[in-house]
Design a protein that fits this description.
Blueprint (H helix, E strand, L loop, with lengths): L26 E6 L4 E6 L24 E5 L6 E11 L4 E7 L1
Antiparallel strand pairs: 1-2, 3-4, 4-5
Length: about 100
């Protein structure tokens, strides 16, 4: 699998830069696997999609800020660096994705 398989167009106006003030009002995209249809709902509606034996697992882990933004020295072009995993703690070497 190539990381380029995950490239897609995401209009800037659809990218949430901050969480919703009321978290239950966050947008939710629902895919019906049987009909292959997509619905756009709010997270507070998520319970409508549960069946009797379904589980909902809560995860309260925290994510460290993994995106770094900068500019190329020669051209001034904007770049984004996404930290994937630390390869060597002593030397602080990381596996990263850089865009563009």
């Amino acid at each position: 699998m190539k990381t380029s398989d995950f490239n897609f167009d995401l209009p800037a106006e659809l990218l949430a830069e901050h969480p919703s003030e009321h978290r239950d009002e966050a947008r939710l995209m629902v895919l019906d696997r049987k009909t292959q249809t997509i619905e756009h709902k709010l997270f507070k509606d998520v319970v409508d999609y549960f069946e009797e034996d379904d589980l909902f697992i809560f995860n309260n882990t925290k994510v460290f800020p993994a995106r770094l933004y900068g500019n190329k020295e020669k051209t001034g072009a904007k770049i984004e660096v996404f930290l994937l995993r630390e390869l060597d703690k002593e030397t602080r070497v990381w596996d990263v994705l850089v865009d563009p």
